[in-house]
């Protein structure tokens, strides 16, 4: 008799997903407002204003590196509450008018807080999702970030046009407090911890990141650079091709494509394996970037957004699931941290590197280069993980056939 499917949408899974959504809603809301705030408030240059945005990602990376290690020793419950309280306290710092240097410090600390809190939520979710529905569950959980990428910028732009920055900071503070309050109602499982020894060990790289997640992390960095080229420069490109109005809906279409496909792709990964999602996603993301490079109409621009949603949007959840599955149970926190470090590195530092390329190529040629790079990364994925995934799938099919025959 077929075994009943384990429940996915438990109270704990829902609470942690919603809390994570509010955290990222704050991140993306401030992402579109802080550079303008820095220019208007402190009259800084555009490069300094860009640093106000980018230094947040640097803080997030620091937070993930530190928390990735501590969460294994202290537990995910303590780390979650620490991260959320720290997130609230750093949100209050925006009210302190201490000049551009103090704002940069605030953004750095706020990023560290997000890195700590979001690493904890990602680890907790990986613990509460049933093993046989890991891909599907992480896919749904990742939608909390996807929704934030679409809703956050819209709210930020609307509030910056109709209210004061003080009210924006207050709204972000309220979201942070709500995240903490609802998290108190979740039953957070105790992590499996490694057996402690009496010897004092020297710190190693594996104390901060999960080496088994390195192969897929390299893939994540490259595809995230491709996505970062859109996230950072789509508005400039839209002005160049006279499609500013259409560009305002780009990430809405992007998010809609993910919402439509994520329930199917997550389940597909659990049943058929990661390759069934990753290879089509590489093609769709690459095709979306190449279409964007030739876009001259609103239809082609928005179609490119949909293709990228089907591509990169599903790669996010699938690569996270791969990173988690490759790790031992007591190192799920480090695997989650490693995944986010790779993604943040691509999105955070990618635009700085691409900024040197744009004067030489222009935006259209940049997206052509990014499309080709993503398609070429398919080969890297094959050698880093895809080949291994295929052999695992073949063994599982063989075992299933043997069991059925006997």
Explain this structure to me?
It is a single chain. By secondary structure, the chain is mainly alpha-helical. It is built from 13 helices and no strands. It has helices spanning 11-31, 34-42, 46-74, 76-92, 99-128, 134-162, 165-183, 214-240, 244-247, 250-272, 275-293, 298-326, 332-405. α4 packs antiparallel against α7 (165-183). The radius of gyration is 21 Å and the shape is globular. Mean pLDDT is 84; it is low at 394-406.
Furnish the topology, listing elements before pairings.
Elements: H1 11-31, H2 34-42, H3 46-74, H4 76-92, H5 99-128, H6 134-162, H7 165-183, H8 214-240, H9 244-247, H10 250-272, H11 275-293, H12 298-326, H13 332-405
Question: Which key terms come to mind for this protein?
Answer:
single chain, 406 residues, mainly alpha, 0% strand, disordered C terminus
Residue share in helix? over 70%
Q: What are the secondary-structure elements, in order, as H or E? A: HHHHHHHHHHHHH
Computed Rg: 21 Å
- Terminal CA distance reads 15 Å
Give the overall shape, derived from the CA principal axes: globular
Supply the helix-strand structural class: mainly alpha
Q: What is the number of beta strands?
A: 0
Describe this structure in a few short sentences.
This protein has helices at residues 11-31, 34-42, 46-74, 76-92, 99-128, 134-162, 165-183, 214-240, 244-247, 250-272, 275-293, 298-326, 332-405. The protein is mostly helical and 406 residues long.
């Amino acid at each position: 008799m077929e075994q009943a499917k384990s429940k996915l949408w438990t109270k704990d899974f829902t609470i942690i997903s919603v809390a994570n959504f509010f955290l990222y809603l704050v991140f993306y809301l401030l992402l579109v407002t802080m550079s303008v705030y820095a220019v208007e408030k402190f009259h800084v240059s555009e490069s300094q204003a860009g640093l106000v945005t980018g230094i947040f990602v640097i803080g997030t990376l620091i937070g993930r590196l530190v928390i990735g290690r501590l969460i294994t020793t202290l537990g995910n419950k303590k780390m979650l509450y620490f991260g959320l309280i720290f997130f609230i306290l750093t949100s209050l710092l925006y009210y302190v008018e201490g000049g551009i240097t103090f704002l940069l410090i605030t953004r750095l600390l706020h990023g560290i807080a997000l890195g700590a809190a979001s690493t904890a939520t990602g680890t907790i979710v990986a613990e509460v999702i049933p093993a046989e529905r890991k891909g599907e569950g992480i896919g749904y959980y990742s939608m909390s970030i996807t929704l934030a990428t679409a809703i956050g910028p819209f709210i930020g732009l609307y509030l910056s046009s109709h209210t004061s920055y003080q009210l924006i900071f207050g709204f972000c503070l309220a979201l942070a407090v709500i995240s903490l309050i609802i998290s108190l109602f979740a039953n957070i499982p105790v992590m499996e911890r490694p057996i402690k020894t009496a010897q004092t060990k020297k710190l190693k790289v594996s104390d901060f990141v999960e080496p088994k997640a390195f192969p897929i992390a390299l893939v994540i960095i490259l595809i995230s650079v491709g996505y970062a080229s859109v996230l950072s420069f789509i508005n400039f490109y839209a002005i160049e091709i006279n499609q500013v109005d259409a560009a305002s809906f780009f990430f809405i279409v992007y998010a809609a494509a993910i919402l439509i496909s994520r329930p199917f792709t997550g389940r597909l990964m659990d049943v058929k394996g990661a390759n069934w999602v990753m290879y089509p996603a590489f093609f769709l993301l690459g095709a979306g970037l190449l279409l964007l490079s030739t876009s001259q109409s609103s239809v082609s621009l928005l179609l490119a957004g949909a293709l990228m949603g089907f591509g990169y949007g599903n790669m996010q959840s699938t690569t996270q699931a791969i990173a988690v599955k490759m790790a031992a149970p007591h190192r799920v926190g480090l695997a989650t941290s490693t995944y986010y470090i790779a993604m943040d590195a691509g999105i955070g530092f990618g635009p700085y590197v691409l900024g040197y390329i744009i004067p030489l190529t222009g935006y259209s040629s940049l997206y052509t280069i990014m499309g080709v790079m993503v398609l070429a990364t398919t080969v890297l994925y094959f050698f880093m993980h895809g080949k291994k995934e295929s052999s695992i799938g073949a063994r599982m099919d063989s075992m299933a056939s043997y069991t059925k025959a006997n």
